[in-house]
Amino acid sequence: MADEKKSILVLGVGNILLRDEGVGVRVVERLGREFAFSDNVRLMDGGVRGMILMDPIIESDHVVIIDAVVNDHPPGTIYRLDGDDLRLSVAFKNSVHDMDLLETMCCCELISGKRPSAVIVGIEPKDYQSDPLVELSPEIEAKIPRLMELALEEIRAVGGDFAPRSDN
Amino acid sequence: MAGCKTSKMPVTPVGNYNGKVVIDPVNRLEGHLRIEVEVENGRVKNAWSSSQLFRGLEIILQGRDPRDAKHFTQRACGVCTHTHALASTRCVDNAVGVQKSIPETGLVLRNLLLGAQFLHDHVVHFYHLHALDWVDVVSALSASPKKAAEITNTAGLGHRQHTVEELQATQDRIKKFVEQGQLGIFANAYFLEPHASYKLPAELNLIATHHYLEALKIQILPARMMAIIGGKNPHTQSLYEGGITCYDALKPENIAQFKALFKQTMEFVNNTYIPDVLAVAPYYLDWGGIGHTTHFAACGEFPMDESDLASRYLPAGVIFNNDLSVVHDFDPDKVMEHVAHSWYKDGAPKHPWQGVTDPMYTSLDEMETGNTGKYSWMKAPRYDGKATEVGPLAQVLIAYGKGHPRVKPVVDLVLKHLGVGPAALFSTLGRTAARCIETKVIGDEMVAWIEKLEANVAAGKTDIVAPFKMPDSAFGVGFVNAPRGFLSHWIEIEGGKIKNFQLVVPTTWNLGPRSDDGTLSPVEEALIGTPVFDPKRPVEVLRTIHSYDPCIACGVHIIDPKTNETYKFKVC
Hints:
The structure holds two protein chains of two kinds. Chain A has helices at residues 23-34, 54-58, 84-89, 101-112, 138-141, 144-157, and strands at 8-13, 35-37, 41-47, 62-68, 78-82, 117-123, 162-164. In chain A, strands 3-1-4-6-5 form a five-stranded mixed β-sheet. In chain A, strands 2-7 form a two-stranded antiparallel ribbon. By secondary structure, chain A is of the alpha/beta class. Chain A has a single domain (8-164), classed as HybD-like (Rossmann fold, 3-Layer(aba) Sandwich), CATH 3.40.50.1450. Chain B has helices spanning 57-61, 69-73, 81-96, 104-130, 137-140, 145-154, 164-179, 202-218, 220-230, 252-280, 392-401, 407-418, 428-458, 506-511, 522-527, 539-547, and strands at 19-24, 33-40, 43-51, 239-240, 243-244, 295-301, 314-319, 335-338, 380-383, 388-389, 473-482, 485-494, 497-504, 568-571. Chains A and B meet through β3, α2, α3 and α4 of A and α1, α4, α8 and α9 of B.
């Protein structure tokens, strides 16, 4: 165990109005309801903001991001992206959200010289393009426990601790 | 163009291209926008602005408790979240009849929260969404940091003192990024190869790049200011009909923190943002004659009485035909939405209270069929039948036209510095300067609001929300003159629930399609005549588009690990 505990940010991002697009936010909500975490772990609903997230990101040593990830695999496929995977995803990609999360991380490095290590726990969405709805698709809803499990593994791996809430 | 120096004015080069240029999607903005222009002899002859994303927010709100509207509407957009929450809150305030009862301290807190949003959004826009259209980061690598420091320290533009070391450090950092090929946010930028439309000397490019990085740090501060009053950021949660519920914001330590963040932010605005605009503008003075629009509207902002638009610090009003000598009263009944060129079922223009969201997608090809086709998911809002620009330029012009004691001197100072007359304001340059001016005049007034807050807390005036009863049926409207301009939410309540809810957002005013009679929208009008030097890198078109700070409110935030995904960008 490291002498100094790393500060860990668990960031769920996405748009809850667009069905599976909001899965990251829902996972973080449940983590917060069902578990208590050590002091060095911070859970955050990052919503759909990019630039503002620079503040909590830059203060962290490690960021666990939970989000929908489009990669042309069957809906419900779960991914883990880190290191070079993340770097490759930046640049003016065909995305509607310019100063988005990954570019925010790149900016963190530009201004502070350091970039928090990060991992994305992602899931292939089923539906994010039909009419606005706050409910997740059943296939994605069913995978939330697995996403929570993976997020908890990541948290533990970098020095965070947690226990189920007794008032659950 | 009145009063501009002609002998040393830099001229944006005109190419000799003839044909179409399609930019899809437009970068560095929120949302998915497609712009198509027809270029003849190197200048834009015709333009179409198309939003590729269906909104449909109105559908999700039907049947819900009106007080929930703010929580849904603010999740729609990644940039303007709080302004939507405020518009929804105000529209229900109006519907339930509680506007006049909002306690003064509650109003002051709402204004401080919104003021912080302006400080955040305008700084981010200038540096992170607009600057790269004017600033060549690669050129910064060949600058002399010593000469650059001389400019900031002796040119008299108001910059704080810079050291050679800090400018050298930035140059080294950028050099490292470029050499490692980790261009990141600068990848695919137009200045990676020399571009004749970029006019700044290397030293100014270095200074601006240095400030770009500094602004990344600074924008965190107003975001924190918002969290103190808003409860959290993103997606503030303290607004409530009848006032606001952030009792913690009344604590002395939180007010002290708010003040400290505010002071630092305003230092940046005064000693960096404003001087940078003054430094860069002279090199792009011909942009005072590019990006012209004709009619302007603002609903004013920062009320001391939510039921009275006339109580707002920045005034409401409408200007027609570029006539600053007559500022008309703003009349909400004159707002209509046209759908002839939009992907909705046809019908006569409707007032938002009668608005319907009945999508009917046809195809993009209709853009080619002249004036008859449908080509956008946005409706076309019109004021009194006219295509009316909204945003900082509209607000500043209306305040200037009314002789506003804070706005008029700042505008006159900028005009004098540039050696141009007011006619130069109706342009992309004017739009950019107005954003800076708006930041300044709001920030300066926030000092008084903070003093009021402290005085009220000391006097025990700590009520911040008033009670109300939800009526069974009512109509309501909420107006916010947001950082992007005039935003309105319109509600019809029936059985105590939302029966109809329509949002008319500023980007729709500015970047919607043609109206029923074929009148171009403000951005389409502004693009006419724009020189295009290199059709493969149409930065000139982007300068005007970005000057509107478009926010298409996509909300799509998917991470896409596919590599090398660049723009679908063609020269037809």
